[in-house]
Design goal:
The chain has one domain. It is built from 5 helices and 2 strands. A hairpin with a 4-residue loop joins strand 1 and strand 2. A two-stranded antiparallel sheet has the order 1-2. It is mainly alpha-helical.
Length: 118
């Protein structure tokens, strides 16, 4: 059986990631899964769901790490009309995706593993 970590590595082969980054993302996703689903364990059938959550988290954290052809991150800092010039202020990043936003995208799948809390 393929481990969750191996699934994440295979799905993020286009991004340069260290083992520590993968482990941290996996641990963060596992904690979020357990909290959302009111569980102390992660079922075997949820392995790919947890891996996909971690992949989405890693890709959102490394958005823009590529060949430079991506749209710049941040808000527009200044515009010059003559001889067109644009500059982006990366310190004013308009939206940073966090794990809660990613969890909402997987809500229906997560609800299948959710337990009632009394």
């Amino acid at each position: 059986m393929t481990s969750t970590r191996d699934i994440i590595k295979a799905k993020t082969s286009d991004i340069e990631l260290t083992d520590i980054e993968i482990d941290l993302a996996l641990e963060e996703v596992e904690v979020a899964f357990k909290n959302y689903c009111n569980r102390c364990d992660i079922p075997v059938h949820a392995r790919f769901l947890v891996a996909n959550l971690a992949v989405d988290l890693l890709k959102s954290q490394h958005a823009g790490d590529g060949d430079g052809s991506d749209i710049p991150d941040g808000e527009l800092g200044s515009i010059t009309v003559d001889d067109v010039s644009l500059s982006f202020d990366a310190s004013k990043r308009s939206h940073v995706v966090n794990l809660d936003d990613i969890l909402l995208n997987y809500r229906e799948q997560l609800n299948q593993f959710r337990k009632m809390r009394w």
